Amino acid sequence: MKTVNVVAAVIRKGDRILATQRGYGEFKDGWEFPGGKIEQGEQPEEALKREIQEELQAVIEIDDYLGSVEYDYPTFHLSMSCYMCSLVSDEVTLLEHESMKWLTADTIDSVAWLPADKPMTEKIKEILLG
Rounded to an integer, what is the distance from CA 1 to the centroid of its chain? Predict the structure, then answer.
């Protein structure tokens, strides 16, 4: 089975994190942490900053490595490295997503997360609750 290596940004602002709704592809309308594929020769942190610039027209600071999620979709294996991030400026423009929401520990389960993103929400809840 093919492995796809991706990075995801858990963008935090105070007690809230950013969730984005996919606007295209097989998983359209599912909610996810923004990010994308690591290109050949690229470091994960470089890929994450590039992807967030491309998807959200935003500049991020990478604050902490949260961990990886390994998930088997029907046609590929996803290896997703997740990072806690913060916005350098508050401006976010959705270029590839349908919608976005700022979620708290109480509302993080209110969206239909993509299967690979869901496991990370429990860890994030604990962080937000401090």
Answer: 23
